[in-house]
Amino acid sequence: MARDGSVVVPADPQGMTVVKKKTQSSRSWILFDGTGQGSLLDLDKYAIMHRVQIHARDLRILDPLLSYPSTILGRDKAIVLNLEHIKAIITAEEHIKAIITAEEVLLRDPTDENVIPVVEELQRRLPRLSDSNQQQGDESPFEFRALEVALEAICSFLAARTTELEVAAYPALDELTSKVRDELEQLLDDDDDMADLYLSRKASSSSPVSGLGAANWFAASPTIGSKISRASVTTARFDENDVEELEMLLELREYIDDTEDYINIQLDSHRNQLIQLELFLSSGTVCLSLYALVTSIFGMNIPYNWNQNHGYMFKWVVTVTGGFCALMFLMITVYARKKGLVGS
């Protein structure tokens, strides 16, 4: 039994599952002393206010049934923490009392996976150091150590949640912006569409006809006339810049066209040389084919009368056929040069 008549159960992180079904009320608390030892308490709100000397309005923000923002309150004898699932009361006399139930389980789940690391870290870091270190001032006060554990735990929890949200949100954001990005890229790639956006130029190009009548109407007002003159000077300056840019673009376009023509001329020259070579090779192939035809005809083993006693005719046939083929090749070459099919 505690000093105020509440039920005290020693806290064991490994054995909290046994106590889970027995402490289903909203009065489940865990108490840590200065040595880091934890004990489960069954307290109502009046016992808590009497134990830590806080008001009911401060205790109300720890109720998971009510919607309160994350808060750190400093009172005379206590520090009240409401940090998402971490709800704690830190005192200098009683050290710390931490709520171990998360919002979604209505204060009845002391083995919540988000709270168990906080319980273990408090048991590890709350015990005091040696007396020599405490006298030298190397150790922080108890309430600061407990507050540091709570802040580190909530920061780690929020960092993990942020990572999960980034994994899900970034693809969705990329999908939303992809349509706008594609439209902008398409607009920037099309010069005609970009030129259509220049409304002032189109208005200035269509204004000379209507400007003749407007000039007579504005002539009676010197103020309007001066404004028009200043506007015309500004427009003239912009027009001069536009004309210079246009001339540079035209020169660049002309230079590009000349370069393309020069490259095409070189390609045509090489193509003509290849055609001439092909013509010579084709002519030689025709002459050799004719020579081979004659020799193959006379080389057949066909019995006929004049083939006997006429062996001397072999060299004449070969010589005459070779000369005729060479003459035909020369005639084809001369005809091609005469018609301008090959270079001189």
TrEMBL record:
Main location: membrane
Keyword Translocase: no
Membrane topology: Multi-pass membrane protein
Keywords: Ion transport, Magnesium, Membrane, Transmembrane, Transmembrane helix, Transport
Bilayer-crossing regions: 279-304, 316-336
Localization, UniProt: Membrane
Assigned GO CC terms: membrane
InterPro entries, A to Z: CorA_TM1_TM2, MRS2-like
GO molecular function: magnesium ion transmembrane transporter activity
Pfam families on file: MRS2-like
Domain of life: Eukaryota
Keyword set includes Transport: yes
Family of the protein in this entry: Belongs to the CorA metal ion transporter (MIT) (TC 1.A.35.5) family.
Biological function: Magnesium transporter that may mediate the influx of magnesium.
Record-given protein name: Magnesium transporter
Species assigned in the record: Flemingia macrophylla
